[in-house]
Amino acid sequence: MIEKFFAKSPNFVQEWMVTFYNIKAYKKRYGGKYHDYLQKARENRNLTLPQLEAIQRERYAEFIRKAVSDSRFYQQKFAGIADAENLDNISKLPILGKEDLRSHIDDVYTISKDQGNLAKTGGTTGKSLQVLYKPENTQERFAMLDEFRSRAGYELGKKTAWFSGKSLLTSNDIKRNRFWKTDNWYKVRYYSTFHIHEKFLGYYVQNLIDFKPEFMVGFPSTMLEIARYGKNHGIEFPANTIKAIFPTAETVTPLLRETLESYFKTKVYDQYASSEGAPFIFECGKGKLHIELQSGVFEVLDENDNPTSNGRLILTSFTTEGTPLIRYDIGDRLELSDETCNCGNHNPLVKAIHGRIDDYVYSPEIGKINLGNVSNTLKDTKGIVRFQVLQNTLDTIIIKLVIDEKIYTPEIEAKFLSNWRDRVGQKMTILLEIVEEIPVEKSGKYRIVKNNIRHLLENQS
């Protein structure tokens, strides 16, 4: 009902609806203990490494005790493990994958859905996972994130250009070449990441110049396409406009960073987290990536589950009390660094974050559809255990589906296809193939997108 009303309303009404939605969402994020957590994050900024490690140990012990007390899943998993709350014994605890959590999620939860904030994640494996956050966990996560961004001058209410998976545009917007919606109260403009096409990018560039945001947040692949268009067409972006760029959800490559920083004339500050609630890695002003020990435990293991400096990333996150993540194999790889940093943050350093796939699907009608938007095609569907997209030609994609036959229905298939049409347009051929299994790569990684047409797009970038 609300979606239909939104679609038929004039633009100014739609933008007030966006603002009203944000007011409700921000009450959850910035209410309660948020300001206490923000103050604590500021105090922790310049602690010594031993002090940070002491906080990590204390929080770990409390987190494990609560999980065992409140979660049936962890009561059973950790039964018989002596002194499980001691961080020195973390290797005795089992390693869990996303499927372990998905298949036992009701027993994993420590609270009911009406007690927490529900986050539905697609993830780069294509599997949906519903995570419940305690309200105070949500507030702490935003406090940590805002403290990180505040180092570059960011605060809520300053003009921000946001590039995420929000689908807010109507057919009338497209006709008017209007690819954004604005929350005028909080001064946030949400730019569509579904219409990144050569024929539209000029409107993005010009609107960004006119809007004059102080900050840019969101999918870096979308920002990259805008920057490339501006460079290729000789459109100069005004200096001293954007103070910082905060990319999310995708890998920041050296070339991507150089392109964004040179075109928008600012600095990129990278971060690592996840919709499931992974602990944080933040980039400092010196360009170094710091593991935030006060947010969780990062283990880097080889294929035999032994510690290494470059391997699988196993996470334990202190801000996931509603759906505890304990030794969670998130599917990424991390390379540690033995360097030190003189920025004032004494948390350990990361040399590189590997494994976040930045493949995309290309639509001749719409343009590039990034991995975040591909993952979100699972929205409002059930029974799709896994999917993989193959693109071998410009006008056709093949989507392989592993389904749960007890849940998957023609109506769900129609919704899934509708989600895809929202992203690739009406002209592409979409072929669905129901399969028993989608094999992983030789590396052991699963890829949601296999793009085999990059050579055909070289002249378009």
Automatic annotation (TrEMBL):
Q: Name one GO molecular function term.
A: ligase activity
Q: Which UniProt keywords apply?
A: Ligase
Looking up InterPro entries in the UniProt record yields: ANL_N_sf, CapK_Type1_Caps_Biosynth
Q: What is this protein called?
A: Phenylacetate--CoA ligase family protein
Upper classification of the organism = Bacteria, Pseudomonadati, Bacteroidota, Flavobacteriia, Flavobacteriales
